[in-house]
Amino acid sequence: MEAAMASGTALVYDEEMTTHKLLWSDPVCDIEVPERLSSSYEQLKCYNLVERCVHVPAREGSEEEILLVHSSEHLEVAKSTQTMNEEELKRVSGNYDAFFFHPNTYHCARLAVGATLQLVDAVMTGKVCNGMALVRPPGHHSQKNAANGFCLFNNVAIAGEYAKRKYGLQRILIVDWDVHHGQGTQYIFEEDPSVLYFSWHRYEHQEFWPSLKESDYDAVGLGRGEGFNINLPWNKVGMGNSDYLAAFFHVLLPMAFEFDPELVLVSSGYDSGIGDPEGQMNATPEVFAHLTHFLMQLANGKLCVVLEGGYHLKSLSESVCMTVKTLLGDPVPQITGEMAPCLSAIESIQNVRAAHKPYWKWLAYEDTSVLQNLSTKSHPPKKANPNPFTDPESKITNNDESVKVERFLELHMKNILFPVPPIKTATTADSKGSAHLLPVPVHLVKEMDKTEIKALVSGFYADLVKEDKILHSLGNMLAVLDKILKKEVCNGIAESPRAAVSVAVALRHSVQFGFQRVLCIFVGDMQIIPNIEDGKILMIHICENEQSGKTSSKHCISLNWKEDAEGNDFFSALLGFILPVAYSYQPNLTVIAIGPNRSLGISGISLLFALLQGLAESRIFAVMEDTEMNLMRSVAKALVGASTPDFGVYVPPTQEKVTKIKILRDQFQQEWKMLQCSVKDGISRN
Ligand SMILES: [Zn+2]
User: What positions does the domain Histone deacetylase occupy (predicted)?
Assistant: First the structure.
């Protein structure tokens, strides 16, 4: 049974929320400016994204809704500030750690709560599939009884509680990718097993605000909530795209798939992006497209993204746009930067895995242990980060730096963005299976004529294409592939009576066309092994039995995997091995072929197609020898992106399978560095 899924992306925004502002001078609070909202919204307009979203109006959250997580004392204090003069406002603000009141703050904070709940309602009632709320003030630091860190009411926590009560949800995932720890959210849900809270945050061994012991990796939740609070502390600044992706592959995503949420809420702070004066991290805007794309595969696509921090206006607004573009289903830009997590990131990942091992089935057989001697501890960094807001000299260099990042991003976005083809998917008109299964207009292409094909394959594989049937299918296949190579469509499906032959020809043709890194995942028996063309092709072959006489090499990896009969246990192979290798390789085209005797079920194959779309600007070519109706339908759905396919029942990997992945990881982690999720003994003490 597949649940029906809504389509469309909501955008909730009300200019009124820009009226909350700082009335006096305060070097800590002066970065939380109204322009954070207006410049994000302007940038969305600039990319024509506003008009593509479903406009959902904000409303004021009710007192009852605020009281879902806050005390009446806190509500009363907030309410009382509406009529205060500046002196009184300043005095009340002084009672909290980093907060400022304006006479309109209470109204704005209620709008921020209401905007978030409007988004939850739009998603839960099926009016839209997903969406984003641009709100101020943010929420994740605010606590039951206190404003904190620019936050008055905890918008996302209220949304979680609201969704539980109103829609009877039993499993909600909150992903907090803001660079600060959402300690407010942690406190609210730490004893609640129905809310899985994940936060990564700049920590630097408790040096960085809010400098709490309970922000460390070993705060796993309390009582019944034990195991449902995941903290990933960053002990260094400068974390980048590969560190964030590694955290998703090796910590968050396996937890999330095992948890199987009914709704995903994102505490979406972009101070974890490049140029931010608070975070001082290096992640570029497109990483948020990738993170969003991954989260869209959970909860049948029900995803609500709610703005938290983000203080470099250009970095913030570009990152907001990347998020919304992805929610709308646009192809994901190629990730930039070296794909290798840094040592400190790997150490943090290892420790959070070790701390959570008792609570999660997917971790049960991983031999991970807590690392005591962290590299950042044995070589303490010199005080490189004096408070930039109180040091006038550093404020000047900060402005300089900020302009530099702005210029960098101007160019960077031009480099990574590309025109989206008006039609996403191509297939051939006479293909019996796929064409009529595709729910939206597809690009139907004519097959290539025989002389053309013969010219193409002459010199290689010529002996394989004597049969007319194969020649005909190659004609279809090449016609679809050409549309992808010429970037007229994002992806395509071709049927083939002999997938291995089609794949060999497709790979050779793509390389000759000029594609330098082609990733090929072949599922099932592969009768001929294609030439890997000096590293221009990376082949991952998934089959049930060890193929005799074949050894794995960096560019030709064999993964023996037979999907569990009880459900889908392919998550662990995909997240723990295939995705890290694929992201390390950074392909510019992905070919996925389903041959005979496939050892994966439909749900495993759907997962493969869904998750690999983050690569190669979402350029995927599907070659199908097995054209069973349900399989074709699932693949078509994943490619067209009209809905999230059904990934089946989650089954944790057996010990044997965990060992299999571990052996492959050990074998290839020096070459494909995104595989690294623990440090070798001794490294940290060197
Ligand atoms: Zn923040």
Answer: 32-327
Q: Compute the distance between CA of residue 55 and CA of residue 131 in angstroms, rounded to an integer.
A: 10
Tokens of 261: 């949420």
Determine the pLDDT at residue 388.
Answer: 45
Asked if residue 191 and residue 53 are part of one domain, the reply reads: yes
178 C-alpha to center of ligand 1: Å?
A: 5
Collapsed DSSP state (helix, strand, coil) of residue 581: helix
Give residue 268 CA to ligand 1 midpoint distance, Å: 9
Q: What is the CATH number of the domain that holds 537?
A: 3.40.800.20
Number of structural domains found in the chain: 2
* CA 182 to ligand 1 center in whole angstroms: 8
Distance 309 CA to ligand 1 centre (A): 4
Q: Token pair for residue 673?
A: 């560095």
- Side-chain half-sphere CA neighbours of 81 within 13 A: 29
In the sheet where 491-495 sits, what is the strand order? 443-445, 425-428, 491-495, 620-624, 589-594, 518-523, 537-543, 556-560
Taking alpha carbons only, the member of 447, 589, 564 closest to residue 509 is: 589
Full DSSP string of 184-203: HHHHHHTT-TTEEEEEEEE-
DSSP 96-116: SBS----TTHHHHHHHHHHHH
Contact 491, 483 (CB under 8 A): no
Give the dihedral of Cα atoms 14, 18, 20, 22; nearest 10 deg.
Answer: 170
Closest by CA position to 225, among listed 269, 259, 202, 201? 259
In a domain, 295, yes or no: yes
pLDDT confidence of residue 530: 83
How far is 95 from 89, CA to CA, in rounded Å? 10
| Annotation marks residue 412 as catalytic | no
Flag whether 274 is in a domain.
Answer: yes
The predicted-structure confidence for 135-158, as pLDDT tens digits, reads as follows 999 999 999 999 999 999 999 999
- Last residue of one domain, picked from the residues 416, 433, 460: 416
State the DSSP string of 456-490: HHTTSSGGGG-SHHHHHHHHHHHHHHHHHHTTSSS
617 C-alpha to center of ligand 1: Å? 29
Tokens of 350: 């290892």
Contact call for residues 660 and 653 (beta carbons, < 8 A): no
Ranges of residues in the chain with a pLDDT under 70 are: 1-5, 378-397, 429-444, 458-466, 547-550, 642, 681-686
Q: Give the pair of three-digit tokens for residue 128.
A: 């839209």
Rounded-to-10 torsion of CA 10, 14, 15, 19: -140
Count of CA atoms in the C-beta half-sphere (13 A) of 564? 18
ipTM: 1.00
Which structural domain, as residue segments, surrounds residue 522?
A: 425-652
Q: How many CB atoms lie within 10 A of CB 517?
A: 18
- Residue 257 located in a structural domain: yes
Residue 368 domain-assigned? no
